[in-house]
Structure formats: C-alpha cells, structure tokens
Amino acid sequence: MMKILSKTIFFILFFSMSFSFNQNPVDYNITFEKDTLVAGSFIDINIDIDVEKGFYVYSADSLSLFPTRLEWTDSSYFSVFYPVIQPKPKTKTDLSTNTDIFYHEGYTQLEQRAKLNQNIKLGEHNLSGEFIYQVCNDKMCIPKWENFNKKVYIQSNLDSSIVEFNNLTTNEPNKHNRDQSIISKFMLAFFAGLIAILTPCVFPMIPMTVAFFAKSSNDNYRDSIKAGIIYGLSIIIIFTVIGVLFSAVFGVADLANELATSATANIIFAFIFLVFAISFFGYFEITIPNKLLNRINKKADAGGLLGIFFMALTLVLVSFSCTAPIVGTVMIDAVSGNIVQPIIVMLGFSIAFAIPFSLFAIFPGWLERLPKSGGWLNSVKIVLGFLELALCIKFLSMPDQAYHWGLLDRHVFLIIWISIFGAMGFYLLGFIKFKNDSKVMSFGYLRITFIIITFTFCGYMFSGLIGGNVSALSGIIPPPKYTYTSGNCKDIKPKYSNKLHIPHNIDGYFSYEQALDCAEQLDKPIFIDFTGHACFNCRRMEENVWIDEKVKTMLNDLYIVVALYVDDRTLLNQEEIYVSSFDGRLKKTLGKKNYDLQITEFGSNAQPFYVLLDYADKETLVEPKAYDTNIDNFIEFLELGINEFNKKRNLN
Which of 23, 204, 407, 455 has the fewest CB atoms below 10 angstroms from its CB? Predict the structure, then answer.
C-alpha cells in the first residue's frame, strides 16, 4: 500500500512540475539553406532556438548528458555528417552527479553540415526526423523528442566546388610560380642523379655494364646504339614508375599542404634522413634481399630486349643502398609540391643517372679514361651523409615554427648547421675518420676546392649568427625573430602577436577581421600577405624585397598589413570554428581558416600571394601578385593599389 502511495505522490509531483514549464519554454525553427539541392553536394541545416528566461537547453557537445541533436528517419539520404557548430556553451556543476553541464540560454543558433548521397534518387523528397533536446530549470529537466519534416527537391548537377577548384589552376601568377618550382626541382633532381653516379655502390657498376654489353655485342655498331638507348630508357622508366606511385599516395594538394608542417610527418622525414646519414657514414647498408637480386640477374642473362630491361633493373636494385637516400631526399622535398612534382623529380634523377650508363654501353672504350675506384668514392658517400644530417635538422624546424615550440630558432639552427658543415670540413681535411675510410695521402684540386667552399659556407652562416644578412639561406633556415608586432590602431590589439611576427617590425595584424576593422577606422587599403611557415619563396620575398626601405615605408604608412599564415597550427576558439563552404570540412586552426579564405575569396592556393583590398566593398584594387623578387615591380604594385584606392574615394 505504501509503495502505491509513494508512486502516486511521485507522479503527481512530476506532472505538476512539468505543467509549470508553461507547456514548452522552447521555440525552435529548423531550416535548410536551400530547398533545391544537388545530389552529392553539401546541405547546411540551421537550428534557431529561443529559450524562455529561467530555462536552458543542453548543448550539442557529446560531453553533455543529453546533447541537443537531430536524428533522421532515413539517414541513407546522407553520406557524411559534420559536427554541430554552436556558440561557446555555458558550464556549471551538477551537485547531484558532480559532473559539468554544458548548456545554452536565451537565443542560440546551431548549424550542422551534411553531404547528400551521390546516388540519391532525383526528384521531390520529404526529409524527416526528430529534434531531440532537454529543457531544464533549477528544479528539473524534461527531455523532448519532436518530429520535423522538410520538403526538398533533388536535382543532378556538378558540385560547384569542383568548378571552383578547377578555376584555381587558371590563375596565371600561380601557374608561373608552379612552373618555376617544377623546373628548379627537376634541375635539383638531375644534379642528384649525377652525384649518385659517384657513390661507391654505383660507380663500380659501370665496368659491369660495359662487360654485359661487350658480351652480348655482335660487332654491329647500330645494334650497340639501340641496346644502349633501350638500357637508358629502361632505367628512366623504372625510376619514373616510382615517382608515379609516390604521386598516387602523396600528390593530393590538401595532403601535401598538411604534410609540409605536420609534426608527425616532419619528424618521420627527419628520422628517415638520420637513418640515411648513418647509412652513408658506413654503419649499415640499406640493401635489397639477395634472393630477389639473383632472380632478376638470371633474367638479365637471358639477353634480348627483356634481358636489357632486367639488367637495368639489376643496376637500380644493386645500387639501392646508395641511391635510396638520395632519391628519398628529393622525393620527400617534392611532397610539398603538387601531384606532378614527384614524377618530374624522378624523371630528372633518372635521366642524369641513365645518361652515363647508356653512353658507356654504346662506347665501351671510354672505360679506360675513368678514374679508378678507391677511397675517394667513400669520401663522396660520407659528404652526402653530412648533407642528409643537415636536412634532418631542416625538416625538424618546419613543425617547430608552425606549432611555436621555440626549440629550433634561427640561432640554434645556425649553430647546429655550422657544427655539421664544420665537421664535414674537418673530415675532408682528414682529421675525422669513418668506417671504410682510407688514409688521405694527398689533397687534389677538387678536395681542396670542397674544403674552401665548406669553411666559407660556415663563415657565411656565422655572420648570420651575429646579425648579418644571410639572404641566400632565406626559406631554408628559420626567419629572424622580430620584436613584438604592434597594430596600426591603438584600440585594436593584434591577436596572435605573441606567436606570430611581421618581418622588419612592420605594423599590422594576423586576423583578417581585425585588419578590416582597423582599415575602416583609418580609411586605408589592406595589404594581405598569404604566407606560410614552410613557404620558401615567402622568406625570399621578405628578405630580398620587403627589406627595401621604400617598400617598408609604403607598407607601414599607406596600408594596413595583415599576414595570414596558411599553415599555422594555432587552435581557433570554439566560437570561431566553422565548416567551409568550399570543401565541407571543419576548420579548427588559424592556418586552415586562412587557407580557406584564400581559396574561397581570391581563387588561389599558392604562397606567397599578395592582395590589395578595399575594406569598404572587399574588392581587390589591382590584380593580386605572386612571387617576384624585382623590387621595382613590387613598388609599382603598391603604388597602383594606393592610386586605385584614392580614385574610388574621390568618386565617392
């Protein structure tokens, strides 16, 4: 009897308190951005919530006990759901459970992005589901499951983001920039291929090549030329296939940009270079299993075109312990480029690598003119080991700048590099010895030249250590530290100025919104610098163009400068996180936000990229400018921008 009475009292209290909620203290409205949607495209769902005073609803955080959310009757309409974007929720501690509660009061707007299924049936559809939330006051909470239904029309069309992305490739300044980058990487790879010939794993293979073709020769000069060309082409094809495979894995532009400053990726790359360096120093060798080599070698002995191809494959595999570190170096460098670059890099390397072998296959008599193998080959390998060690430090400096660790600043970096190249110089002098080294009996002209170059380079870096200009190393070593960057408007303190700096102590901002506000106050145009910590050409521009006194004066006096780092890893505040309208992805870091702005507003994805903007209509004043180290051209660019800005003001 007592149990029945207690239950009755509980339900009476529950329903009386529920009735005190004034039916429902929450008004809400669920809307779609568009009523006509494209199959495979993104859909933005807005939830406007208005809560009566004295009540609150739980936030959309998964940490909430009863998160506010949408549940769909048929989720197969969608292929992806993105996290709900919401204002920063308030928090308080629930004394009964001793847990934190995340909640919203008053008016709140939630936004969720979803991607429609590509294979959705075209035509009219009713998208229905439940809006689930919990409304509370200081006495109790009531959960709600309320049905909603939205009528939409699905049509077939190309996703507009694909069109936007294709438009990026037609940007002429960026195209010129990419072309220059590809040519420079091709030449670097070509030079690396020539160096690989002089390593102790490759150089002794030249007599073996001559012996192979001499054995299969039938004294027909035309056949010798044909065999030599096929041999060279086989080497090029094998290496280029490696480049194609590498592109398939790492060639996606967004992934490349991510890898350029990713802490994990760069630490892995640095470790790879360290392993390569130790290998070159002779402590172990990176080799292909003998069983595989023997099988391929047998096929090479078969002769004919197939035999020539397998002889080329044997050469590539046998020389792997020396070529792998060199190939790895140029390939990892190519990761920061586009999908074409790894292929171009391997093409350049393989052409340089194949030319000598093809020539010796055609002209075996040249063998007598070659220097004999000896200790000098091991010296080449050791020098390459020092270079790999220097590259290890370079790759560690990339995430150090992007994440602001402060471990490898300019001075520390230069001290380490001076130590590495100083040790290389003393090695060439014979004071330092490694495994497999022979005693240096004499100094040839080439060795003396390398000793002079090495110690001159150390002296050059030392001048940078004491404050000298080392512009030749711009983009390779970390940028110099500048004093605190102050804003142009006294009442607008630059965000992120404790982490980021504008070169040469130029005043400015690191937030696009702050730059707009300040430009409006002072009635000045905006100079947008889309830059990056891992951007080589950005540092070249800053240390060769921005350093000019007239350029600095114009930027300081005539413009509001805003430096937007596209690869910075600083986390945005909760209320600043959003889903991009371009790629439908959540933007959580300052770099991703700036990169998204550059693509969506200015149709560019390369750095450096300079935009002169009118704050009033957010229109560009002149054609944006990319990498160009001609100071006069840059001054003309700034002058055209200010003239156009003044013209617009006079018309108004």
Answer: 23
